[in-house]
Amino acid sequence: MLRSVILAASRSTRVERLVATAPFSRDVVRRFVAGARTDDALRVTRALVGDGLAVTLDNLGEDTVTPDQANAVRDEYLTLLRSLAEAGLTPAAEVSVKLSALGQAFDEHLAYDNVRAICTAADAAGTTVTLDMEDHTTTDSTLDVLVKLRKDFPSTGAVLQAYLRRTESDCRELASAGSRVRLCKGAYKEPESVAYQSPREVDKSYVRCLNILMSGDGFPMLATHDPRLIAIGEDRARWFDRGPDGFEFQMLYGIRPEEQARLVGEGYAVRTYVPYGDDWYGYLMRRLAERPANLAFFARAVASR
Ligand code: FAD
Known about the structure:
The chain has helices spanning 2-9, 13-21, 25-32, 38-50, 67-86, 108-124, 139-152, 167-174, 199-215, 227-239, 257-265, 281-290, 292-303; strands at 54-59, 93-97, 129-131, 157-161, 180-184, 219-223, 248-252, 270-276. The chain is of the alpha/beta class. It has a single domain, classed as TIM Barrel, CATH 3.20.20. The longest helix has 20 residues, at 67-86. It is globular and about 50 Å long. The mean pLDDT is 91.
């Protein structure tokens, strides 16, 4: 119920205005978002890489409605990739891209041209791109774009969401040599017709999908903060003899940093997903919807003002 309310608020421009102008927002945002500028992204990346983590950077933006906005997002990624290479942070750092930020909702061709330009720049910078997955209405078109991109950029990564009923079959499809697949639970509000609704069903689906990916020929990227699923990932890594070159854990910036450090200490490859940019509202609201403790943190920041 609370999750639905917060996810509904994440689409409300009135609530967005309220939250964005509230004095407490800066502290809350800073915990989960690297900052507004490319330099902030570089600073945080440098620190994480220094701690033995790999990074994937997301330039926040979901409400792209004009070609100019879409092209501006593309240009920011091109600048970021150049800066990462110049700073010697590739290949440890790669980028995550939302097709909606590149124009997918109003011009699929434009979004494709933009993501292709980003893949070309990533290739030149010696690193990779992962296509974030958004709500279920975009799954087919995002996977179609992936197939086209992989012809020229075979290491382009995909994201599959365990809450979708179709995902087991998508995992089978993508568990092939050379493919990189991030498995997450899924962050959007989806109808029962396409998605499991109970946490237990989602977790069971995650384990089925994890088994398919870890026993397959691709490179699994296990994106979760869930201690039980991480333990199952560690178990399957031993079972299928996958070392740090064979799979990685992924977690979000600001969430369970001590667990990220523990896994690095155990010799696992761990990648932190680092969002940056002005357009942090939708991202922050999804994080708050996921976990009551994040809401408590939010409330404490308000109370301390
Ligand atoms: P949850 O069910 O949220 O949490 C399970 C357990 O994990 C909790 O009970 C608790 O024990 C522990 N935990 C969780 N948060 C905390 C915390 N803050 N502190 C301490 N313990 C905690 N979603 C998409 O839809 N598309 C994407 O492209 C996408 N990319 C992602 C990339 C990465 C790297 C990650 C980590 C997530 C991504 N997500 C994406 C979000 C994902 O779908 C989930 O919404 C999000 O990760 C929460 O699910 P969870 O697996 O962490 O488990």
